[in-house]
Each structure stands twice: as C-alpha cells, then as structure tokens.
Amino acid sequence: TTSESKPAQVIPTAPLVPQLLSWLPEPAMESMLSAPEMVEGFSIRPPTGYSGILAPGAPKGVFVKGWKGGVRTDNSSPSIQLSILSSPASDSCPDVETGLRKSLDGIKRNRDNWSESEVTRGTIHGMEFVRKSWIGNNKLGGAEMRGLMYISLLDGKLIQLSTQDLEPHAEEAFKLAESALRTFAKSQQ
Questions:
Q1: Over 60: is that where the pLDDT of 183 sits?
Q2: Residue from 103, 107, 101, 97 nearest 129 by CA
Q3: N or C: less crowded end of the chain, CB within 10 Å?
Q4: What are the C-alpha distances in Å from 11 to residues 16, 18, 42, 168?
Q5: Burial 73-103 (b: 16+ CB within 10 A, else e)
Q6: CB neighbours (10 Å) of residue 39?
Q7: Distance between CA atoms of 134 and 119, rounded to whole angstroms?
Q8: What's the CA gap between 129 and 98, in Å, rounded?
Q9: pTM for this structure?
Q10: Which residues, including other chains, have CB under 8 Å from residue 107's CB and lie 6 or more apart?
C-alpha cells in the first residue's frame, strides 16, 4: 500500500500585516517647537515663532487653522495647517483614502507638472494616518512647490495635517513642519 503524504503545514513566523510606521518629531527639531496648543479637542506643537491663523468663512462642519512663519526675502512663508471635518462634512469622505484623494485633488487643480508619492501608513501618537507627498508648479506664477499631507478618520472626524512650500525652501522647512505635524495628539483635558 502507498500512503499519500500530506504537505507540511507552514506557520508564518512574521505577521502577515506589515507593521505601521510610528511617526515622531525629529529629536533635533523638538527644541524648535512651541508648547502644545489646544485645538478642537486635540493638541499640536507649532514651530516656535509661527503665528496662528483661523481660516475665515469655512463651511459648516469644517474647521481650519494654520500657522505661518516669518516672511522670507522672496515674500514666501513656511506654514503648517490642521483641518478637521466633522459630520456632515466628513460624510463625503467615508474612508482615509477617499479623504486623501479629495484633498490632494483640490491642490492638484491649481498645479501643473503634478507628481505624488505612494501612500504610506503609520501612526502619530497611536492614531492611524495615511501620508502622501507631492510636487507641482503653481498655475499662478509657475513656482515649483512641494507639499505633504497626513489624513486620519478619528471619531467620525476627518483630520488633515499638511504643509506646502516653495521648492527652494521646502527641504529645510519640511524638517521642522513635519516634526510639528507629528506632535498632533488627542487633548489630555
């Protein structure tokens, strides 16, 4: 008699789902960040010396706050932005991928020569986010710009953390801007 041999059972030694990145501020940048600022139940540490600006005329359910650095000799300024879309505004973005795509498409409409990175996934203070960077020329004036965006869905709210800058300044400005964005946390109050 011949017996049929069964294939050996393979037990994976590593998780099948890749680990999420843990996004933290760069240690060298932490001393350049202000104390936490409370915003709509969350906190964020904008760069020291940046002034806060609320976006006027935002539609119902949309909260936008930005922080802007000093004006450079070419009249540009570094900046970061926090946007929170509550229901019903967040209902048009049922998942983070849709929210990211809609947000990027809004920027892309005003850019030529557009390119964007692949989506990366990670956490900021334990909250899951997706991240994408982009490059494009501003249709008004043609200046090359670079930006990046983090998107999350938290408790029925779409959270968008972003920065953009002119290309000659972007590499240096992004180290500080991205470190500030990575301080985003739920408020402890």
A1: yes
A2: 97
A3: N
A4: 11, 17, 42, 51
A5: eeebbbbbbbbbbbeebbeebeebeebbbeb
A6: 17
A7: 11
A8: 13
A9: 0.85
A10: 134, 136, 147, 164
SS3 letters for the chain? CCCCCCCCCCCCCCCCCCCCEECCCCHHHHHHECCCEEECCEEECCECCCEEEECCCCCCCEEEEEEECCCCCCCCCCEEEEEEECCCHHHHCCCHHHHHHHHHHHHHCCEEEEEECCCEEEEECCEEEEEEEEEEEECCCCCEEEEEEEEEEECCEEEEEEEEEEHHHHHHHHHHHHHHHCCCEECCC
